[in-house]
Design goal:
single chain; alpha/beta; Rossmann fold; 2 domains; seven-stranded parallel sheet; 8 helices; 7 strands; binds nicotinamide-adenine-dinucleotide
């Protein structure tokens, strides 16, 4: 495969302060991106990202439509978007409180819709090329204990396919990635993982106890996900649109 080249390109990334989003920012910079528009709630995390390309760091909640109105009016060029910000938690449906359900859908699904809508509006005007939405393997596979998270991620995968169908005429490609387990801070933010950490004594032990779920073994890295997202964004993937790339080490087989 030819070297993936993003020279001169502008890309927007949500959830850019940490994990997969931060790795995407670094990957795109390494592959020549000229400007990155980075969106996250976490101001300190955004500031800590060490980037030498031009970077606009925007602090805000992706589920807030006003944030996207502002971003839309400030953007004149956008070649790529990685709509990736998300939160996670899990419990059986009978224990799921409605506020938690609403918050999950607001951040994961509303936030993805709003970010995608803004990106597509700008891309349509300026000849933008591609977007990737971050779904999850539990949005493809039914997994007990993931009602809110899994439903939000299933809707994101479907949204990517619908967007792809709507934008073939604009030559804008939209795909989703459905990662299995990736070693990022999102795990540490969930109550279930914190309990596991306490029980087993360390983060490493907790990760290890979950790592046999994927037949190929272990957790993926954020950098690996960034490379796969980068490929989907790139011109090398010019005929791939409306796909959901399952990247789960065989977890769902
Ligand atoms: P992460 O927690 O490291 O990063 C998520 C980022 O999203 C954080 O920087 C956080 O501040 C930001 N964010 C959360 N809510 C936000 C909001 N309302 N507005 C703006 N920013 C917000 O986790 P990650 O693993 O890098 O997650 C990235 C995406 O990958 C998420 O959508 C997640 O659901 C998905 N994913 C992760 C895994 C995994 O195992 N890590 C697996 C499948 C899918």
């Amino acid at each position: 495969m030819a070297e993936l080249d993003f020279s001169g390109r502008t890309a927007l990334i949500t959830g850019a302060a940490s994990g997969i989003g931060a790795a995407c920012a670094q990957w795109l910079e390494r592959h020549g991106a000229a400007e990155l528009v980075l969106v996250d709630l976490d101001e300190a995390g955004l500031q800590e990202l060490d980037l030498s390309c031009q970077a606009k760091r925007i602090v805000g909640d992706v589920s807030d439509p006003a944030l996207w109105d502002e971003i839309e009016s400030s953007l004149t060029q956008l070649d790529h978007a990685v709509i990736n910000a998300g939160i996670a938690s899990g419990c059986p449906i009978v224990d799921q409180d409605f506020d938690g359900w609403r918050r999950m859908l607001a951040v994961n699904l509303d936030g993805t819709f709003l970010g995608l809508r803004t990106s597509l509006r700008v891309m349509k005007k300026c000849g933008g090329k591609s977007a990737v939405l971050t779904s999850s393997i539990v949005g493809v596979d039914a997994t007990a204990g993931t009602a809110a998270y899994g439903s939000s991620k299933a809707a994101i995968a479907h949204l990517a396919r619908i967007a792809a169908a709507e934008h073939t005429g604009d030559q804008i490609r939209i795909n989703a990635i459905a990662p299995g387990r990736v070693d990022t801070p999102i795990w540490t933010k969930t109550e279930q993982f914190q309990d596991l950490e306490k029980r087993l004594g360390s983060r490493e032990a907790a990760l290890e106890s979950l790592s046999d779920a994927a037949p190929l073994g272990g957790f993926a890295t954020a950098e690996l996900m960034a490379g796969q997202i980068g490929f989907l964004l790139s011109d090398e993937a010019w005929n791939i649109t409306g796909s959901v790339l399952v990247s789960d080490g065989g977890y769902s087989l």
